[in-house]
Structures
1.
Amino acid sequence: MTEKISRPLILVSNDDGITAKGVHELVKTLQKIGDVVCVCPDSPQSGMSMALTVNSSLKVQRLEDYEGARMYKVTGTPVDCIKMGVDNLLERKPDIVVSGINHGSNAAINVVYSGTMGAAFEGCAYGIPSVGFSLTSHDEDADFTPCLPVIEELVCRILKNGLPEGVCLNVNMPANVKEFNGLKVTKSCKGRWNDRYVEYRDPANRPFYWLAGEFVNEEPDNKDTDEWCLTHGYVSVVPVMLERTYPELSEFSWIPEKI
Amino acid sequence: MTEKISRPLILVSNDDGITAKGVHELVKTLQKIGDVVCVCPDSPQSGMSMALTVNSSLKVQRLEDYEGARMYKVTGTPVDCIKMGVDNLLERKPDIVVSGINHGSNAAINVVYSGTMGAAFEGCAYGIPSVGFSLTSHDEDADFTPCLPVIEELVCRILKNGLPEGVCLNVNMPANVKEFNGLKVTKSCKGRWNDRYVEYRDPANRPFYWLAGEFVNEEPDNKDTDEWCLTHGYVSVVPVMLERTYPELSEFSWIPEKI
């Protein structure tokens, strides 16, 4: 039995937008643990990384509560949603930022483009323990059922243990698995997108382009990667950092001290 | 005298958009070193990080050549510009990606939000040596003159020495300095934005918000930071990495193997 001493304050966001199934499933689960305030983009923001609106203004609209949670939509990016939540909508700094559940994988190189992880990194920049959850299915009506106990347990453990400064978690879960084989703390797989632009013609015969491509896994047999976990039925938990500086500064002695 | 054996192919982009002074100064300088193809956003994209257009299409328009360089504008983000350049516009993989010159600092935490650095990181993801240049002035007509010899020399040295896999350079230069005191290879300064949203009212009295705030330097006396360099007249060169995985996975033993 959970004693009702002080319920944690949980800020939720995502990048698929306020109408996505994934964020509703997340809110419902997290309401068991704490008081949820959900601040999401009003439109899909997949691939928005840590994009931040600086050259225009934002509108915010409060919606009907969902399962007891306060719900807002913002005309911006996932990062904007976290900033708006922390700076303008919440009465106090939240105890945790939870982003997702994303419809689609954010494993490997996808972590750098992910708006879901953009929101988690932004929480991290505020010094708030933060985590992003993704399911490897783009289906709008994906079955998130197996994810929910994992999310509940991990969020409770993060609240209890905290996270290192500047570090958040990128959690990916394999779709179409009845029961996960387990969880692994692992690292981002090396790989890249083999991109191409598909050319179309508009009614006036002017070209326009849509990005297509396939992910190429450069270490498919490496068991210590998030991609391996996902293809073998495991949940991957990758601790990811906000820090960008490459630590081996001595490798750059060819950069002159004076020009 | 430069022998015309094979001129390097240089892909240029920025986040201030194709009309910005900074990118024109950059193109002019780089044409001395190699063949420049410039692919920039058609609108300002500051703060766009590594945002990538996945849910809509892109248009590309070739403009008049500038100082011998091929110029294109794309209806997308800096990352889109790099992808469009490499995948669709260039005849071969470029020898270097150069982004900027940004109107404004990309030191400290700004590196994570920067569209200028988004383009450089994207070049890096293709395995191309990549560098972003920024001047600490938002003035549309900023004086980039002292930057140009630094850029020319650094780009030549990068072409010669290469960069470690997954690492690019974030170069910031102080504005309003007649002559730089020198260059320092250094690290991102710890600090954060003290944000707030300024509230306005539209003609129908509905609120809208604009982000404001000040950067708080958490280590102002640390000489080994980019911010210190910039406030003391030095050019800061920060090697930055695409890798996100936090290396100390053993700190997460509290994450259960099974739920």
Note: Chain A has a mean pLDDT of 96.
2.
Amino acid sequence: MTENRQIIIDSLPTDRLEPGNYALRTVDAPAPGDGEVLCRTLAITIGAGQRAGLQGSASYAGAPRAGIVMSGTAVARVEASNDDAVPLGSLVVCPAGWQDYSVHAAAKVRVVGEGDGVGDPAHHLGVYGTNGLTAYFGLFDVGEPKKGQTVLVSAAAGSVGHLVGQMAKIAGCRVVGVAGGEAKCRLLTEELGFDAAADYKSPSFRSDFKEATPDRVDIYFDNTGGEVLGSALRRMKVGGRIVCCGVVSQYDTSKPAPGPFGVPGLLINFRVRMEGFLVFDYAKRYPEAWTRMREWVEGGKLVPKQDVFEGLEKAPEAFVDLLAGGNVGTRIVRVAS
Amino acid sequence: MTENRQIIIDSLPTDRLEPGNYALRTVDAPAPGDGEVLCRTLAITIGAGQRAGLQGSASYAGAPRAGIVMSGTAVARVEASNDDAVPLGSLVVCPAGWQDYSVHAAAKVRVVGEGDGVGDPAHHLGVYGTNGLTAYFGLFDVGEPKKGQTVLVSAAAGSVGHLVGQMAKIAGCRVVGVAGGEAKCRLLTEELGFDAAADYKSPSFRSDFKEATPDRVDIYFDNTGGEVLGSALRRMKVGGRIVCCGVVSQYDTSKPAPGPFGVPGLLINFRVRMEGFLVFDYAKRYPEAWTRMREWVEGGKLVPKQDVFEGLEKAPEAFVDLLAGGNVGTRIVRVAS
């Protein structure tokens, strides 16, 4: 039998996640049944939202428990197929989890193109995956940016944020990013076209942030919640919108903080709309987003960033580092080529 | 000269407001200049939002200071006029403040009808005043209720809440009120047509609230913020809306609490839209609301409640009692008849 390495949840984190919350085990690779395919994991993506999935019932990701393979989306190669719709050799995106091999009903995997300009198959996990789709529908459908407006993005160098900011530039907006550390802030303004950036870890953040938003903020794309949300609430323009996409500031703990001061008072004073969304609700419109994002990427207007760890065994470390703000763009763990 | 009693802010409250934060003084009544009218206050309305005005710059009501007449809206009789548009004897609504007499530019007062079915002139401060207009535009324009939906209202026996709930019934909704105390809850269900009510002061509030919202909540009209908002966030339906109207739980203090847990996380999980509004933004559409509310009141579908203190000198006490949740419907201080 072929060996299948799996990374399992060994214990649920009680405070900050640690690599020791995971364990590696080796089992036999599964065999596909009728209508199923065997997928060889090539690369896994890790998102901060998965940490919320470890908090239990509070999250949309469902209840976690020790002893199961850590969940995760992968790009994979079909190595055995019992369904003609997904032939041997297909490149697919599937909910593989953190392991070398997984079996899925053929209808549950998405066959993706290759060799047609996408480049690295891992882009199907980033700009053409949940991150890109989240950026697209969150910004355009929930945020509704108009030319000339100011769009603020938190976790702006992150998997979703770095795409949101670039899309907002494409929409003709002034774009301000909040990120942790000087290096990320420089990346935003020097490489990704952001108009301004503020480092939330800097002691001068308050004044830097104010200076970066002289005309206040029309649309705040919030990936963090917490203190950055609190700061943003005070800089909203009358009639502004807050797109609630993620709460990364509150994921890596079992004791989330209360909401920011000024909720709901500042929403009233500034007549602000704050709206949460989940990208899965837009599934029927994914093709529209893929078409537009492909045009932007091929035209050089949208630059997807990846941030790669090599080897399945590095996944726990890659996740912990991500939660500490270590990533730029989509975090990828390469498992095989 | 005619004497003019005034209630002035003697000191800004540092924690809970007390009657001692105000002082009564007597001055000469003012004389109207060119284009001005002299108004004799008949009744003043007091709303919890005015407490926010004493917190300083955090509020839309502007910065308060000791030594000035306490602000407030009144219904008044014109006792001298230097503008033909507002003749002597007119009944008007004006920003009189807490005093017997005030002078205003004629263009700044609103002449209101009388003897045409409105009944008590003080209704111009309640159902036909800011309270009614706030209920109307907040519910219909921000909340957008559809027949059969569940509408939840906090401070449901309050000046705005008791009207919101009745309007939601008119819209064909199931209406649930949260209020403080059994007596108020009984009023809601037995007199005002609410389908259910839950007493937030009861030790069984959590289970009572859950029982009162078996199908969860489509629209939450939030007058309180704080813990009731926190409870409501956990009972929203996917795609629900929260209408942010007031934050009475946070007004009577100089140290407002942080926002509720679950902001913004629960907004994401449940794809909830939370939106603040100020009624003044709808000024051009007030006539539409007055027309519809008159029909409802005359048809017996909308029952405006008043809660009256007699005498200008009682205004501070009426305010403090209101902040402690003492009122049912619009709080009125009658000054003269």
Note: Residues 69 and 329 of chain B are 25 Å apart (CA to CA).
